[in-house]
Each structure stands twice: as structure tokens, then as C-alpha cells.
TrEMBL record:
Membrane-spanning intervals of the chain: none
Localization terms from the record: Cytoplasm; Nucleus
Organism, as annotated: Gymnopilus dilepis
Superkingdom of this protein's organism: Eukaryota
GO cellular component: cytoplasm; nucleus
Keywords tagged on the record: Cytoplasm, Nucleus
Official protein name in the record: Translin
InterPro entries assigned: Translin_C, Translin_fam, Translin_N, Translin_sf
Family: Belongs to the translin family.
Length: 273
């Protein structure tokens, strides 16, 4: 009888040790994911700040974007070092067991990486390129990159591109860049739409992408209308555009109601048409 009791105690001690290990590892991964999320957000802020710097005779917009991307890559290496340290925690099938804890930081990292890549190349980063950033020097993966996290991270990119586009409109020569970003986001939305039946949460992010695209289109439309009202040299027109965008951001941009009717900021919901 004593032998049976001892065996039961040993079994429960093993279960307890396994549960303790699971919970401890889970907490470590949650903390690491939060740290990675914070670093990714700082990288995105850095990319915006540098890419939106002053364009002059000696510095072009393309050069600013390249400079932003290079500094962004340096910042992203800190995150890649974090993932390298997490490799022992995620060996074998452990990654899939703890994927829910890893995903938030991973998606934020992909968002920052894809934004830097867009500023550098003007294109969408591929799945293989993202996976290569999560490998050791010998080409061994820290963990397999889930397609769902890759697509959800890219979907978040459209929000940053919306901010980049609207801020670019107000800069000299930035209207062309804003139109390029608008076309790019429109293409992303159309391509991602085909994946929504297969990727959980993607449909919600697609709704946010649609809102971001609408904001870019509304800003671009407002600028075209304002520009058509004046026959002025490009430099003076840029100043007027900058003022128009300032008004757009603060007061005058249109919002779309649930029924599809647009109203301008400042109009009351209960006003008669």
C-alpha cells in the first residue's frame, strides 16, 4: 500500500513540476513579447520621425526614406537578439504550445520590419525575407514563422502607411508619394481579402485597413479639389496644400456614417440633409 501511495505522490509531483514549468515559461514569454512590442513601437516611431524630416535641395525624399530604413534595421536587430535568446524556450513543438503568448510581439515586429522594408524598397516584404531575420548565422530558424502572424502583421502595416501618406501630402513634392502609398494600400486590401476565410482575425484588420484607405483617399481628394482652384507655381501650391492638410487633420476631414452618408467634421448627426 505504501508503494502505491508513493507512486501516486511521485506522479502528482511530476504533474506539479510540469505545470510550474509551463506557467513559468508562459510568464517569461509574455514579458518578452511585451518588451518586443515596445521596441517595435519605438522603431515605428523612429521610422516616421526620420522619414518625415525636412526635404531640401541636398536631401531628397528617397534619401530620407533610405536613411530611416537603415536606422530602423539597426533598431530591429535588438528585437532579433531578443528572439535569439528565446530560442531555447521555443524549441521543438514548444513554439506551437506557446504561440498565443508569442504572437502579439511577433506581429508588431513584422509591422515594424515591413514598414522599414517599404521605406527602403517601396514593396511588401515577403514571407521568406521575414523568416530570414529570425535565423542564426548558420540559417537555423529560431522558430517557424506562422503564416497567420505574417499576414496579420502586414495588415497592421496599412495603418502606418496611412499616417505616412497623409503626412507626406503636406510636404513639398509629397503628393506623388501619397498617391503611390494610396495605390499600394488599395492593392494590399484587395490581396488580403482573399485570405480572410482562412486567417482568424484578418477580417477585423481588413475593416481597419478599409478605414485607413478611406482616410488616404479623402485627403488626396481634398487636395486635388483645392489644387484645381488655383493656377499657381508649384512652390506656392505646396504651401496651400500644406495648409489644406492641416485643416483636414484638425477640422475638415469627412467621416462616413454607418449608412454610408458622409458628413464633415463639425456637422451634427441630427441635421437635416
Amino acid at each position: 500500500m505504501a508503494t502505491v501511495t508513493t507512486s501516486i505522490h511521485d506522479s502528482f509531483n511530476a504533474f506539479r513540476a510540469d505545470l510550474d514549468d509551463y506557467n513559468d515559461r508562459r510568464e517569461r514569454l509574455i514579458k518578452a513579447s511585451r518588451d518586443i512590442t515596445n521596441l517595435s513601437k519605438k522603431t515605428i516611431f523612429l521610422l516616421h520621425r526620420i522619414a518625415q524630416g525636412d526635404v531640401g535641395e541636398t536631401v531628397s525624399e528617397a534619401e530620407l526614406s533610405k536613411k530611416a530604413a537603415q536606422q530602423g534595421y539597426e533598431k530591429l536587430r535588438e528585437i532579433q537578439e531578443h528572439y535569439a535568446k528565446l530560442r531555447p524556450e521555443l524549441e521543438g513543438d514548444k513554439f506551437w504550445r506557446y504561440q498565443r503568448q508569442v504572437s502579439p510581439g511577433l506581429q508588431e515586429y513584422i509591422e515594424a520590419l515591413s514598414f522599414a522594408h517599404y521605406l527602403d524598397h517601396g514593396s511588401l516584404i515577403t514571407y521568406e525575407e521575414v523568416q530570414r531575420t529570425l535565423m542564426d548565422p548558420h540559417g537555423v530558424e529560431y522558430f517557424p514563422l506562422p503564416v497567420s502572424d505574417y499576414l496579420l502583421g502586414l495588415s497592421d502595416l496599412t495603418g502606418e502607411l496611412m499616417r505616412f501618406a497623409i503626412s507626406s501630402i503636406a510636404r513639398r513634392g509629397g503628393r506623388k508619394k501619397a498617391n503611390q502609398v494610396c495605390a499600394f494600400v488599395r492593392g494590399c486590401k484587395a490581396d488580403f481579402e482573399r485570405m480572410t476565410p482562412y486567417i482568424r482575425e484578418l477580417s477585423k484588420k481588413q475593416a481597419v485597413t478599409a478605414q485607413s484607405l478611406e482616410k488616404i483617399e479623402d485627403a488626396a481628394y481634398a487636395i486635388v479639389v483645392r489644387s484645381s482652384e488655383y493656377d499657381l507655381p508649384p512652390d506656392m501650391l505646396d504651401d496651400i496644400v500644406a495648409q489644406s492638410v492641416s485643416n483636414y487633420n484638425t477640422y475638415g476631414h469627412e467621416t462616413r456614417q454607418a449608412g454610408g452618408h458622409r458628413r464633415r467634421g463639425g456637422e451634427s448627426d441630427d441635421e437635416d440633409d
